[in-house]
Each structure stands twice: as structure tokens, then as C-alpha cells.
Amino acid sequence: MAGRTAVNAAAANNPGRLNQRISRWLCERRICSGVARSYSAHEKVTAALLATVIALAGAVIAANELLGVSNDRSQYDLFFSGLRNGERYYYGDTRFEAGFTYVATLLVNIGASNDVIYGVFVFIAFFPKLFIISLRSRRIAISAAVMVFYFTRFFPMFELTILRSACAAGMLVLAFHFVEERQIVKGLIFSALAIFFHNSALIVAPLLFMPVIKLRYIILLCIMLFALLTVYIDELLSHLIGSVESISYYQHGAQFLSANLLAPSMSLDIALLPIVIIFLYKHTFAMLRALYMQMFATAFALGAIKYSVFAFRLRDTIAIFLIFYLVDALHDDDLRYPAMALIALNSVIFTYAYFFYGSVHLLN
User: Fold this and answer.
1) What value does the CA radius of gyration of the chain take, rounded to a whole number of Å?
2) How far apart, in whole angstroms, are the C-alpha atoms of residue 178 and residue 186?
3) pLDDT mean across residues, the chain
């Protein structure tokens, strides 16, 4: 007993050793992989430089609305102008979360224009995803393919439109990566930061730490989630609306928008299932976690279908983690071609949706 106490005391005084013990405990419970990848300083710097250049280009495109006018841009401009005119917003009085409000206030105080502020937030949202894609891709062709997938499917919806959710998603992508690399403290920190930029992170963040268990158990849990939400979704939103102001929009302002259960965003993700079943034994921890999260998100969307914007926004946010699936799949000889086909289909359909259909949401 005394020996164990001494070991615990030593671990507490040595953060590295304590982190190793935490990681070992999590690995034993299949919360993170037993083998962490190693990245050289050159790989990290190269990934950061590439991500910086592309994220800056994305910020310029979004801030100047070069790909069209965002549906939500006017609301952000009003918010930024209100801060500039001396209005003070507190959490609970506005749909804008505390972290987003704090950063926006800081930028307003140093004299940034609305376009610059918007561009900074786009950079904050876009950079982490590009960095992780580049870092985890061992070949430039893989990095380029997954970036095309993200840019065509998610950039118009997130960085151009639902900016707060995009910022939170960027931080959650970093958290996902750190959990997979057994850097749990960093994973927790970025999960917490995400919550300060969008409330949806309260639902998404716990999924990053769920055990990677057998597929049949995940299916059972998804069925249970769908059943519970089908019955209790009204009570859940009524409870949340008392503490989260922005939820009121989903309950009262957007519940009458119809949802298309056969929308490409849903159908293309479901198309992954045959690949999962056939090649399940070849999936990495990161691939399985991304898939399981997507399954939970689909169950959530179907169970909360009455509030389609709320349901599908959350599902689309979790769909971003498919970048981890695709990066690992493109490194595998058997999974490479199905992954390439999925990227091609997503790119073509969502490019059409944005430039010709006139909507990136494809809900109707």
C-alpha cells in the first residue's frame, strides 16, 4: 500500500509520467489507441505552413464573399457593429457564445473591420482541419484529396455560413487528434475551448472519449438513442432552452423546415456501411471512432427529425470527423479506391449543390 502511494506521489510530481499512466488506463478501456504515431518537427512545420497558406486564402475568400453571400453574414456584421458601438453582450443574453464574443470584442478593440474580424474567425476555424489533414497524411496526394473533400463539402456550409460552429469544430478536430495520440490533457483543453465557441460541442466532445467497442454494441446504443429522442425530444429542448439561448431558434424559428432523409449528405455517409462491414478488421482506432460518431449523429438526426435544422446541423458537424477516416483509408491498399470514390462523389454533388442548386444544406 505504501509502495503504491509512493508511486502515485511520484506520478503526481511528474506530469509526463502521470500522462503515461492516464494514457495506459485509457488504452486498457479502448478509449485511445495503444500505439501513438510520431511526427517529426519537419512534418509539423510543413503541415503548419501549408495549412496557414490555404487558411489565409480561405479567410480572404470568405471575408470578401468571393463565392457568394453567406446567409448568416448579416447577423455577424450586426453583432460586430454592436460591439463597436459599445454594446456589451453577456452569455445568456445572446446566441453568441462567450469565447466567440470575447475574441470578437478583442478584435473590435484593436480597430479591426467587420471583414477582418470575419476573416480571422474563418482562419481560426479552417486552420486546424487543414493542419491535421496535412500532418496525418504521409503523402501530398492524400493530403490534397482529403482537403478537396473538406473544401467542397464543408467549407461553404461551415466557414462561409455557420462560423461559430466551424470554430468549435476546428478545436474538436484538434481534440480528436490529441486523444488518438494519447495526449489526453490537450484533448480535454481543446474540447473545453470548443464549448466556448458553440454549444453543440457539449454533445460532440464526450464522443471523442467514448470506448471503441464492438460494432454490434454501437448499433444497439444508436437504436436506443433514436428511440429515446423520438419520445423525449420536446422535453430535452425545453430543458436546454432555459440555459442555452440559441436553442430557442431551433425550437421556435426553424422547426418547420422539412428534412430530406435521402439528402446526399445522409445518403453518401450511409454508403460507407458496406465498406465498414467488408473491411472492418482493417479499420484503425481513428477510423472506427469517426464512424461510430457518425452513427450516433445519424441516430440523433433521425430521432430529432422534428427539429431538422438542430438535428442536421449537429450531424453535419460530426460528419467533419470523416476526414480522419479518409486519411487512414487512403493509406490502405484495400480501402483506397472506395475512399477515392466517396471523395469524388462528395466533391461533385456538393459542388453542384453550392453553385447550381443554391444550397449547401440540401435539407429540402
Assistant:
1) 21
2) 6
3) 81
